[in-house]
Amino acid sequence: MTLAQLAGSWLTGGGPAALVDGTVRTRSVAQTRAELVPLLPRWGITRVAELTGLDIIGVPVFSAVRPGAATLVASAGKGLSDDAAWVSAVMESIEVAAAETFACADPLVGTAAEIGCGYHVEDLPLHPVSVAADSTVLEWTAGLDLVTGAAARVPVAAVGLRGWTEQRWQPPLFVTTTNGLAGGNTHVEAALHGLLELVERDALSRVGPRSERVPTSPAAVGPRVAALAELVRDAGATIELEFLASLPGTATCVCYLSQSEMPQLFGGSGCHLDPEIAAERAVLEAIQSRASVISGTRDDIPATVYHGAMTLGRQRRATAGARAVPDPRSLHGADVAGLLGGLAATVTERTGRPVIAVDLTPDEAGFPAVVQVFAPGMTPAPEAPRPTADGWRGP
User: Fold this and answer.
1) How much is the pTM?
2) Helical packing angle, 29-36 and 82-100, nearest 10°
3) Where does the record locate the signal sequence feature (predicted)?
4) Percent of the chain surpassing pLDDT 70
5) For residues 38 and 244, what is the distance between their CA atoms, to the nearest angstrom?
6) CA 172, 178, 179, 180 torsion: positive or negative?
7) Does position 7 have pLDDT exceeding 60, yes or no?
8) What average pLDDT score do residues 352-381 get?
9) Bridge partners (DSSP) listed for residue 241
């Protein structure tokens, strides 16, 4: 995708990429935080709490609290700095708030064939009791095909999060989750991170026997990951990293933290165009999961976690050394819109279906941009007993 293809659409903000605190962003986290602070009341966020000191690892973890939420009240965030963790928590809270309040003002009504959506309704995550099919008359909201730049359609019932009671009753049609939901300084930035999350979920869903995973050591991945692993080990915990089979041009990594004094096995996962960023995200998410359980602030953590029911009954063995690490990729100066378009094209090549972005940003807000990306035909990760930033799931 080029800037020329984006001209005239709502998906704007492409330009040279900058690696900011280990991820692709268009401005510094300090700048983003300064712009988010006055917006907290507008999104119903009443408190941003620092959880870092509750754990002995010392990696920044924050929690953004939104008491009026219909789904998740406390959203967690992590990062290499206080600013990065603060922004991460607030952005997640805003993403969920935007998803909860999404409404399509002018839906198109018809069947999948009449709409010409380019995919089957069954390619989206259907609810177990859903009766939706290509012949079902649905309401459709507008989106944007990230490969062609053309208008595209997604069923309204598949977009956002359904936390409020509807005025009318009908059997649930789709499973609505935070998969593909992302916020950012710009729409392109948000869409890139939303699509990377879908690639991550797809890779997690395809995990087979342990032999199919490629263990590696933090030192083999890169200096930032090695530094994080040293903090974990200094706290007396054990860390494991594994790379999974992922979409060509991407790297998906999972991390496991365990400690003899705690019954839980904490996990995290991450996907990126650069393997070190993917691994760094996995480690940070595992650390965030641990801090969230220690703090008890998340309202989506089952009580069984505190009774030792989530333990595997033994600690996993630490990885002795690296067998393989995906080739590193330099992202400095790369065009963000180009990165997004290239990734979307690879997904479409695999699935044979469009990759669609839906704008969830309220008109009056403008910043931050909130986008939900849909990749019909990609497999979402199954639910599993592991705490992460977006709930309990993983390999």
Assistant:
1) 0.89
2) 50
3) none
4) 83
5) 40
6) positive
7) no
8) 89
9) 216, 255
- The model's pLDDT over 55-107, given as tens digits with 9 standing for 90+, comes to 999 999 999 999 999 898 999 999 999 999 999 999 999 999 999 999 888 89
Average pLDDT, the chain: 85
CB 246 within 8 Å of CB 206: no
* Cβ-proximal residues to 153 (8 Å cutoff; 6+ apart), any chain: 108, 115, 116, 117, 140, 141, 142, 143, 356
Residue labelled with tokens 């008491």: 67
Q: How far is 302 from 27, CA to CA, in rounded Å? A: 37
Full strand arrangement of the beta sheet holding 214-216: 214-216, 238-244, 251-259, 262-272
Could you tell me how many residues make up the chain? 395
pLDDT at 179: 93
Helix axes of 187-205 and 336-351: crossing angle, nearest 10 degrees: 30
User: Rounded to whole angstroms, what are the CA distances from 55 to 33, 130, 295?
Assistant: 24, 43, 9
Nearest-angstrom CA–CA distance, 141 and 386: 33
* Helix/strand/coil (H/E/C) assignment for every residue in the chain: CCHHHHCCCCCCCCCECEEECCEEECCCHHHHHHHHHHHCHHHCCCEEEECHHHCCCCCCEEEEECCCCCCCCEEEEECCCHHHHHHHHHHHHHHHHHHHCCCCCCCEEECHHHHCCCCCHHHCCECCCCCCCCCCCEEEEEEEECCCCCEEEEEHHHCCCCCCCCCCCCCCCECCCCCCEEEECCHHHHHHHHHHHHHHHHHHHCCCCHHHCEEECHHHHCHHHHHHHHHHHHCCCEEEEEEECCCCCCEEEEEEEEECCEEEEEEEEEEECCHHHHHHHHHHHHHHHHHHHHHCCCCCCCHHHHHCCCCCCCCCCCCCCCCCCCCCCCCCCCEHHHHHHHHHHHHHHHHCCCCEEEECCCCCCCCCEEEEEECCCCCCCCEEEEEECCEEECC
What pLDDT, on the 0 to 100 scale, is given for residue 162? 79
- Residue 245, sorted as left (phi over 0), alpha (psi -120 to 50) or beta, turns out to be beta
pLDDT of res. 388: 38
Residue 219 backbone class (left: φ over 0; alpha: ψ -120 to 50; beta: rest): alpha
Q: Looking at the predicted structure, is the pLDDT value of residue 3 above 60?
A: no
